[in-house]
Amino acid sequence: MAFKLQNPLTFQGIDGIQKHLIAHGFDIIIIIDICKAIIDAKEANKLPESRLAAAKQAQMLINASAKTGIKNLAYAVAGYRPEVYEVIEAFKEFVREEARGYEKEFPEELYDAWYRIYQLNKPEGRGRPFIFRKLTNEQIYIPLAKSQGKILELAKNNKIENGKKNEKIHQFLSDVGVKALKQHIGKVLGVAALCDNKDEFEEALFGKLFKH
After folding, report:
1. Could you tell me if residue 7 is left (phi over 0), alpha (psi between -120 and 50 degrees) or otherwise beta?
2. Whole-prediction pTM value?
3. Is the pLDDT assigned to residue 16 strictly greater than 70?
4. Which among 68, 56, 55 is positioned nearest to 29, based on CA atoms?
5. pLDDT tens profile 150-171
6. Are 117 and 197 in contact (CB under 8 A)?
7. Is 173 exposed, middle or buried (0-12, 13-18, 19+ CB in 10 A)?
8. Distance between CA atoms of 2 and 4, rounded to whole angstroms?
9. What is the DSSP pairing of strand 20-25 with strand 9-14?
């Protein structure tokens, strides 16, 4: 441990005015070495009474580190990545397992904006251009809540498992998800109102609004 303390790591840092500087630090695992040294000193009766509390804290830290280490080892062996699953669980808040009753969540104003911006003719009857499915995914579902498509994927999977062919993806969103959907559509409509053509519209969406 003495060698590590006398030979800190050197790395490049940045100060408050963005100038590069040389900084020094230590590998975080040196904390365990320090804790062990404190504990060894206590067991050898060489630790001052005023530092006995530190020895107790050091033992707690080592115990906690051991638990975390063995847990991470088990995760690695099993191929489990907790950070990934935590993100998935968070996005599941937006999705429900079964379809809600039919509700019209996509306003006609959105489709009217797409007809105008993409210079499309309204087809006769109740159908809509096939490109609207692509636009719905790219401009609504994939960027929804900055999930990069994770919410869409979860909702699709739930539809496959629990839904029917004619049910809509938004029917598989939770109340939280529907609220986020409406807010997102509102933002897209706001951008559309300021744009006259496809290039302006998509630059504003993908260059600014959807930028992560």
Report:
1. beta
2. 0.60
3. no
4. 68
5. 899 989 888 888 888 788 888 8
6. yes
7. buried
8. 5
9. antiparallel
104 with 187: CB under 8 angstroms? no
Q: pLDDT of 164-190, one tens digit each?
A: 878 888 888 988 899 999 999 999 999
Residues 6+ apart with CB under 8 A from 70: none
Structure tokens, 212: 């992560």
Q: Hunting for tokens 């790395």 — which residue is that?
A: 11
Q: What is the mean pLDDT of residues 68-80?
A: 68
Residues in the chain: 212
Q: Is the dihedral of CA 21, 27, 32, 36 positive or negative?
A: negative
Task: Supply the DSSP symbol for 141.
Answer: I
H or E stretch including 11?
A: strand 9-14
Percent of residues, the chain, with pLDDT higher than 70: 84
Instruction: Please give the structure tokens belonging to residue 77.
Output: 């062996």
Residue 161 CB coordination number (10 Å): 10
Whether 170 contacts 184, CB under 8 Å = no
